[in-house]
Each structure stands twice: as structure tokens, then as C-alpha cells.
Design brief:
Blueprint lengths: L3 H4 L3 E4 L5 E5 L4 E3 L6 H14 L11 E7 L9 E7 L4 E3 L6 H13 L2 H14 L10 H17 L12 H14 L5 H26 L21 H13 L8 H5 L6 H33 L6 H32 L11 H35 L2 E4 L2 E3 L4 H26 L1
Parallel strand pairs: 3-4
Antiparallel strand pairs: 1-2, 2-3, 4-5, 5-6, 7-8
Helix pairs in contact: 4-7, 5-6, 5-7, 10-11, 10-12, 11-12
Length: 423
């Protein structure tokens, strides 16, 4: 028995990473809108039938239309049409069926240079690899780019610009593309299209980063736009929770994750310098906090709450030193890859990497907070036994109020600094 999607001519395409999109072979329409929902299927069907009066919604041979929902996250979709030309490798927002639209499309093509057009097209193909064949010479272009990069890795030129692919990446990708070869099955063809698209996207990102840094690549055909309503409320809540627990420190490493690159052995040392300094300083301060916390916990007269805070300081400082080693190895692995990260693998991957890199400072910050808390509790609630039956507090009331005043001044300075930084 056919489903409502099949009855209306739609193909339900599921990729190996469980992402889904839909393709209509007769109308040559692709969409990321979830047509498994009856209300959305009816809305898109009505939209297509409403545009079929002037027959502008059936693109000519070599073209297809791409419907994107402008009401992401809402119940009723509001589709926006863009058009993909596979022979020219162009993605435009003007219909190719009307003469005046062709003029608009041509003017749009003149405004955007070839780099933007390539990036738009290959971003679309990377996220929709299962319904359309690769254009002619695309595979050979990808192999040429990999071979060129492999040559630059083996025989470095005098230019200070690194190749877009590392030596290991070139070897693995060339071997993979040659293994796939011709006469591919349907599943192999999906993988082949995705690999070639990603190679050519990386090449476009590399060219923009080094030869056109004043003008970013377009984002209107990003292969990482949200699907099925974007980020859910639970994921946003988890992001808020993690940023609160980590004191916002992972955001300090996002820019470094986005623009990490290396050129030669000398630049590797320069690139790794800040991370080595951060790791060394955090380990040194964590060792001091660890030693001071052990001494504090061994003091007589420390009550239960103060002792718990001291143990938390010990655990956090030890975790800071261990995570510094892990972060250093992670950073070394990233540095050894001659890769330019322009957009990365999405926010999830960047968050994981930035979280790992920030763990030494996060644990150190919580260790310092716990250590200060333990000292404060000891100053207010600690006691000493001078003689049998005589209990005496180690600090006078003057010390208590001094601690409170100092903490108030520090809190005021931090709040004022945060306000000035935001302005």
C-alpha cells in the first residue's frame, strides 16, 4: 500500500547519518521540510499547485527547485524557492522559466563571483547527495585538488600558505575515490557525491580564507542549516546549563577552533604557544591550590562544611591538572592536521572541542572557589582547642568583617568589569 507521500509523487530519502529530505522527480523539486507530517504535505502540495498555473514551477532540463521553510519551528510552513542549475553549478533565487527571471538570475550571477557560486552549489549537493548525479568533471577536479595538495605536502613551495588538505587526508581521500571508481551502486553513489562535494567545499573555504579574506562566503545555502525546527528546547536548555556550569569559559576557545591552521614546523610552535602557556599556568596554579587545600583540610577545628569545601578544592585542582594533559594532546592532534576550519562540523562538534579545551580552566576556577569558600568557613566557624575544655575561635570579629568587605569589593570590581566589557 502506498503512503500519501508516494501517492503525490514524493521520494522519501534517508541518508546514512539519518538526515532526511524529499524529492519530487516529476516536478524536480527538493525540500528539507518534513513532509511526513500531513499538514505540511498538504501545505507544500497546495503551494506547488498554486505555482503551476504559469508552469514556472517545473524547471527546465538540468535545473531543479529547492524549497526551504522560512517559518522554521512553526506549525504551518512558509516555503521559499531557490533554483539549482547542475550543468552550470549555480544556485540562484530567480526562476529560470520566465525571461525576466533569467535576466535577474544573470545579474545575480554577475554580482556573485565564481567562488560564491561554487560554494553555494556544493553546499547544496553535500546535504542532498542522493537524487542528482555529479556534474561532469567534478570527480576529476576533486582528484586534481587532492593531488596538488599532496604534492605541496611532499615538496613544500616557498609560499607561506598551507595546502587545503594534509598529507594523510590526501592519501585517504585519493584512495577512497579511486576505490569507488565507476559503475557505482545507489548507496555508493551517495557516498561518492558527498565526498566530492566536501572536497570542493573545503577548496572553496581555503580560497576564501587566504585569497579573499575581506568577503565571507554566502550562508544562504549552508549545508548545516537546522532541520525539523532547528534546535529543540531541551538542547537549548542543555547549552545554557553547560555554559553556566563551565562559567562561560568554552566560548573563549570557539574562535581558536574556527580558525586553527598550521604552515610549517616553526608556525606550529607559534600556534601551540598560547595553549602551552595556558596549560602550564593552569597546572602550576592547580598544584598550589592542591597543596594549600591539603594543608587546610588537615587544620584542627575545621567543621564539616569547611572540610567538604576543602575536599572539593582538592578534587577540582587534581582534575584541572589531568584535564590539562588531555587538552594538550587534543590540541596537538588538531595542530598536526593542516586544515582550515571555516564553519567546522557544526555547533555540536565545536562545543565538544571547546569544552575539552576549557576543562583545565573550568576545574581550576571551581577549585579556587571551593578553596576560598573553605577558608571563609574556617574564618567564621573554625575553632582551636588551647587546653582541655577551652575552645577558641582562630579569628576575631575584625577578621570576619575584613573578609566580608574584601569579598564585596572583589564582587563589585568583577561586576563593573563585566559591564564595561559588554559596552
Amino acid at each position: 500500500m502506498q503512503t500519501p507521500l508516494q501517492l503525490k509523487g514524493w521520494r522519501h530519502i534517508t541518508l546514512p547519518d539519518n538526515s532526511v529530505y524529499f524529492y519530487h522527480p516529476t516536478r524536480r523539486v527538493t525540500t528539507d521540510i518534513d513532509l511526513r507530517t500531513p499538514a505540511k504535505l498538504d501545505a507544500i502540495t497546495a503551494y506547488l499547485e498554486g505555482h503551476s498555473i504559469d508552469e514556472s514551477f517545473v524547471p527546465p532540463e538540468g535545473w531543479e527547485s529547492w524549497l526551504v521553510d522560512s517559518n522554521v519551528g512553526k506549525k504551518h510552513p512558509k516555503p521559499i524557492s531557490s533554483w539549482v542549475n547542475h550543468s552550470e553549478r549555480i544556485l540562484t533565487f530567480a526562476s529560470p522559466s520566465l525571461p525576466q527571471s533569467r535576466e535577474v538570475s544573470s545579474s545575480k550571477t554577475m554580482d556573485d563571483d565564481r567562488l560564491d557560486l561554487d560554494y553555494r552549489y556544493w553546499a547544496f549537493m553535500e546535504s542532498h547527495p542522493a537524487h542528482a548525479p555529479l556534474p561532469l568533471n567534478a570527480r576529476s577536479e576533486a582528484l586534481d585538488a587532492l593531488t596538488w595538495s599532496y604534492t605541496d605536502c611532499l615538496l613544500p613551495s616557498a609560499r607561506p600558505i598551507p595546502p587545503p588538505f594534509s598529507q594523510d587526508e590526501c592519501q585517504e581521500l585519493i584512495k577512497l575515490l579511486e576505490t569507488l571508481g565507476n559503475n557505482l551502486s545507489e548507496s555508493q553513489n551517495v557516498v561518492h557525491t558527498r565526498i566530492v562535494s566536501r572536497v570542493l567545499m573545503r577548496l572553496a573555504q581555503w580560497r576564501q580564507h587566504y585569497f579573499r579574506p575581506d568577503r565571507p562566503l554566502p550562508k544562504d545555502a549552508s549545508n548545516r542549516q537546522p532541520r525539523w525546527g532547528g534546535k529543540t528546547f531541551s538542547s537549548r536548555l542543555m547549552d545554557l546549563f553547560m555554559s553556566t556550569v563551565c562559567l562561560g569559559l568554552p566560548y573563549l576557545f570557539l574562535r581558536r577552533a574556527n580558525h586553527l591552521r598550521i604552515t610549517d614546523e616553526e608556525s606550529v610552535a607559534r600556534s601551540a604557544g598560547p595553549m602551552l602557556a595556558i596549560g602550564a599556568c593552569s597546572c602550576l596554579v592547580a598544584a598550589i591550590i592542591l597543596s594549600a587545600s591539603v594543608t587546610l583540610v588537615s587544620l584542627p577545628g575545621l567543621d564539616n562544611f569547611g572540610r567538604i569545601a576543602g575536599f572539593v578544592a582538592i578534587l577540582c585542582s587534581a582534575a584541572s591538572m589531568i584535564s590539562a594533559v588531555i587538552a594538550l594532546f587534543r590540541y596537538k592532534a588538531d595542530v598536526e592536521r593542516a586544515v582550515v576550519y571555516m564553519g567546522g562540523e557544526g555547533l555540536v562538534m565545536l562545543s565538544r572541542r571547546s569544552l575539552v579545551m576549557s576543562l583545565p580552566l573550568v576545574f581550576l576556577a571551581w577549585g579556587i572557589v571551593a578553596f576560598i569558600t573553605a577558608i571563609t568557613l574556617y574564618s567564621f566557624r573554625g575553632f582551636t582547642v588551647s587546653s582541655p575544655g577551652t575552645i577558641k575561635q582562630p579569628f576575631t570579629d575584625y577578621t570576619h568583617w575584613s573578609v566580608v568587605g574584601t569579598m564585596g569589593v572583589l564582587a563589585g570590581a568583577l561586576i563593573t568589569s563585566a559591564i564595561l566589557i559588554r559596552r
